[in-house]
Amino acid sequence: MHEVQAVVVKAKNEPAVIETILVPDPGPGEALVDVLTCGVCQTDHHYQVGGVSDDFPFLLGHEATGVVSAVGDGVTEVAVGDRVILNWRAVCGECRACRRGEPWYCFATHNATQKMTLKDGTELSPALGIGAFADKTLVAAGQCTKIDGDLEPEQFAAVGLLGCGVTAGLGAVLNTGALKRGESVAVIGCGGVGTAAIAGAKLGGATSIIAVDVDDDKLATARSFGATHTINAKEQDPVEAVRELTGGNGADLVVDAVGVAATFQQAFEARDLAGRLVLVGVPNPGTTWEIPLDQVFGRGGSIKSAWYGDCLPNRDFPMFVDHYRLGNLDLDGFVSERIGLDDVEPAFAKMRDGKVLRSVVEMEALSTVASGNQQ
């Protein structure tokens, strides 16, 4: 059993605070990970405000890198010393999605069996089955994706963001949206996930990439990640503006990275005939949209939601890390600030105010990591 410092929220809408928690040694199929970095994601805030479940207290944090420090019986995916990106889709290989060859939809993903607890024995619910705002965390071994090759210590903050938000945006375009080279893409909402969708459109060869937001600073950032055009939705009708920029037709692929009824309607109407709409912004519980079935039929195409960008971590993470090394994917640009564990609550406020793409917690263990595998 390991006593470590961690960020916990004990009840709905209470602040995130540092607590001493107990982390067990790994059992069968589990891995103990020394956390190096962890991004502050909107999903963590959803846990804090009760938007995910009422299973308080929550151990927050999930966009993380780390070094495997111990493994349980039967673990073959990773070994002690491996540097890893954590993920929340450890596929089972046996559910109906996995059996039909679509493991990125796995309906029975694995988490650690044992529970991390407060010192008094109260069981913690780790965010997305990870709980990485902590010096150590316990996960299912399949939640670890090995990072091969060299990385400098300062690069871990960037690649760790592949664990959730950045991959969600990249995958919404490349996987769910099935982007083809030369197509046009419009992205509504240019926070962290929307900006990642723009980066994905550039990576996938889109020739017209239209960023839509109400904040000029976010639109400027979108341009730095590959947007060829920007639209401030406070100043002009975004649907008409997208159509004007696409020969009057609408975009081949439109991504709603906000997830409210108004932006979903805009995304629906900004598509070309037979165009695709991908919802990657997470709606609040109870959000509804009045569906005009005649338009759904008449416009054709598809309307899909992106679960984790339809990502398969052991397939996609290494590919994205390679693109990062090659200079094709600016993961460093997503890191707005590097902070400590005690800065998580202020980071939530900055995120809500749109002042950062990502704040990233850097743990003390990061100072001991050098390039290459740690053995």
Tell me what you see in this structure.
With about 375 residues, the chain is of the alpha/beta class. The chain has helices at about 40-50, 95-100, 155-160, 165-175, 190-205, 215-225, 240-245, 260-270, 295-300, 315-325, 345-350; strands at about 1-10, 15-25, 30-40, 60, 65-70, 85, 115-120, 125, 135-140, 145, 185-190, 210-215, 230, 250-255, 270-280, 300-305, 335-340, 360. The protein folds into 2 domains: about 1-165 and about 310-370, Alpha-Beta Complex (Quinone Oxidoreductase, Chain A, domain 1), CATH 3.90.180.10; about 180-305, 3-Layer(aba) Sandwich (Rossmann fold). Strands 3, 5, 6, 9, 10, 17 and 18 form a 7-stranded mixed beta sheet that branches. It has a 6-stranded parallel beta sheet with strand order 13-12-11-14-15-16, with helices on both faces. A 5-stranded mixed beta sheet has the order 7-2-1-4-8, with no helix packed on it. Helix 4 packs across helix 5. The two termini are about 20 Å apart. The mean pLDDT is about 95.
In short:
This protein has 375 residues and is α/β, with parallel strands linked by helices. The chain contains eleven helices and 18 strands.
Quick tags:
375 residues; alpha/beta; Quinone Oxidoreductase, Chain A, domain 1; Rossmann fold; seven-stranded mixed β-sheet; six-stranded parallel β-sheet; 11 helices; oxidoreductase; ADH-like_C
CATH superfamily of the largest domain: Medium-chain alcohol dehydrogenases, catalytic domain
Overall helicity: 25-40%
Q: Indicate the radius of gyration in whole angstroms.
A: 20 Å
Query: Approximately what portion of the residues adopt beta-strand conformation?
Result: 25-35%
Architecture of the largest domain, according to CATH? Answer: Alpha-Beta Complex
Structural classification: alpha/beta
Overall tally of structural domains: 2
Beta-strand segment tally = 18
Could you name the CATH class of the largest domain? Alpha Beta
Number of helices in the DSSP assignment: 11
User: End-to-end distance, in Å?
Assistant: 22 Å
Shape call = globular
Output the CATH topology of the largest domain: Quinone Oxidoreductase, Chain A, domain 1
Instruction: Give the rounded overall mean pLDDT.
Output: 95
What pattern of helices and strands is seen along the backbone?
A: EEEHEEEHEEEEHHEHEHEHEHEHEHEHE
Unreliable segments of 5+ consecutive residues = none
Largest sheet: 7 strands, mixed
GO molecular function, one term: mycothiol-dependent formaldehyde dehydrogenase activity
Cofactor: Zn(2+)
InterPro entries: ADH-like_C, ADH-like_N, ADH_Zn_CS, ER, GroES-like_sf, MycoS_dep_FDH, NAD(P)-bd_dom_sf
Keywords: Metal-binding, Oxidoreductase, Zinc
